Amino acid sequence: MTPTASSLADATSSDAALRRFLHGLPGVDQVGAEQRAAALATRSIKTTAKEFAIDLAIRMVDLTTLEGQDTPGKVRALSAKAMRPDPADPSCPAVAAVCVYPDLVAVAKETLAGSEVKVASVATAFPSGRSAMAVKLADVRSAVDAGADEVDMVIDRGAFLSGRYLEVFEEIVAVKAECGEGAHLKVIFETGELQTFDNIRRVSWLAMLAGADFIKTSTGKVVPAATMPGTLVMLEAVRDFREATGQMVGVKPAGGIRASKEAIRYLVMVNEVAGPDWLDPDWFRFGASSLLNDLLMQRTKTRTGRYSGPDYFTLD
Amino acid sequence: MTPPEVTRIDVRKTYKLYIGGAFPRSESGRSYVVADAKGRFLANASQASRKDARDAVKAARAAFGGWSGRTAYNRGQVVYRIAEVLEGRRAQLEAEVRDATGLTPARARGKVDAAIDRLVWYAGWADKIAQVTGGANPVAGPYFNHSAPEPTGVVAVIAPDDPLLGLVSVLGPVLTTGNTVVLLASEPAPLPAVTLSEVMATADVPGGVVNVLTGSRAEVAPWLASHMDVNGLDLTGVDDPVLARTLEASAADNLKRVRRPRAEDFADAPGIDRMTGFLETKTVWHPMGI
Lengths: 316, 290
Hints:
The complex is a heterodimer.
Chain A: H1 5-9, H2 15-24, H3 30-40, H4 47-59, E1 61-64, H5 72-83, E2 97-100, H6 105-112, E3 118-123, H7 133-145, E4 150-154, H8 157-161, H9 165-179, E5 184-188, H10 197-209, E6 214-216, H11 228-245, E7 250-252, H12 260-274, E8 286-288, H13 290-304
Parallel strand pairs in A: 1-2, 1-8, 2-3, 3-4, 4-5, 5-6, 6-7
Chain B: E1 31-35, E2 41-46, H1 50-69, H2 72-87, H3 90-101, H4 105-125, H5 129-133, E3 135-137, E4 143-151, E5 154-158, H6 165-176, E6 180-184, H7 191-201, E7 210-213, H8 217-226, E8 232-234, H9 241-251, E9 257-259, H10 273-276, E10 279-287
Parallel strand pairs in B: 5-6, 5-8, 6-7, 8-9
Antiparallel strand pairs in B: 1-2, 3-4, 4-10
Helix pairs in contact in B: 1-8, 2-4, 3-4, 4-6, 8-9
């Protein structure tokens, strides 16, 4: 049974109450979820609907670079691309945000000044999340101080898997407090490490109860990253959460989405599962880097009527 | 007691495309009837769509780095290997050439032999073309200046109707020099091209280096000609001058190298212009005496 507002009221009062609540969530039918995701992936999106979907997907991209080899120059180039993804076509929309490590937030912020593109920063000892609480909070603070509009935190998967739910909950609450009013909080679950769909549903509710503005599938450092069925479970959770509380929470699949076709399948799923309200960059994002080039190539194809090639777009 | 006579039912072959080292049917699910020289039904071949062409270009692009990066010597070995494996299929190829052209068995055999010899000839060129087209250039200055040929990239080849000799005569040179190929087989006689793709799949040619499409030239060729990720276009098999002209015009968008159709007899000595047509020349200035 889907939780109601009254059952949420004291769900987080103690570790036992939280466990009772999370384990009381209905189980996910794994075969059903996989089949539903596969069925939604067969929809054919063509012509004007495809053009709409491609532009929407571009506007939803969190253009990401999270490598040890990142340099200020690379972040500047990426930010320039974020503002104007296709220099040859001024009608091409900008992406939603640029996602970098905390030390490069200032560089991105400076390059993006005056544009609508937001700066997201990963924090809390990304990607493993294995560090002392004080270190994680300092990580968040440095990102927010540098001007990050959005903070992508990772949860402590070890604590979650060993059943210390309240610890995970309190960590998210603390990070949310550190973000303050200024920065949006995205909570990364790393679904590839959570083993079951039941766990994905539980952690989704846990994060939403703790005040997450967005729930995000993966860091992109673990395989499998975002999957259609995993995202489906999260979309169901945000839909049910709005039904129970009236609050909307965003969803961000990240990692492994490289083709426009795949992105459009996700959009179909968003529309069918969560609803058209989520078809907006404020409520749905793609964490990706190479996806953008494929979207641009598809966009060019629909505009010019001929296939485009990777030679005509920047490498990242 | 003798067992009752059982009539064996022939196992009919599905003629498929060859993309990225795999043998898919056309994405569109279509096929078309291939007739022999007398107009009798021969087989159903896959009718490739623009999306098959797109997939083929993608596979060819992905394979380009590996193929062009091999040593010329090794590329020659691989092309020679195709000839070796073809040699073992001479009977099948002879039958296919006979069906497609109506030639006598002896003449069809002659065509097959010439095609295999042609491949061996091109295989030999792999590590020699650089010496012929490149070399040291005399310059007025303290520099060592030299030019070296490099493959153009992904080349779309519209194969002529000469079912086997014409086919290897257009494929061999482009392949030997390190390009990767999207080949649109002869529209009326595609079966030897399908057989050749089966040979290549077992002859050490890496997947994606050669991709073979069968289907309508008028439908598929324009997509290859306008594709921005195709670097060269060989129009040998385009008989219709109007279509050739349109293809040439749409190839101009990204400055593809284009080889126009012209009257040629594939039995003649081929010369090297088919190889040099899809090579770029890189010239390097190297300071010396320092």
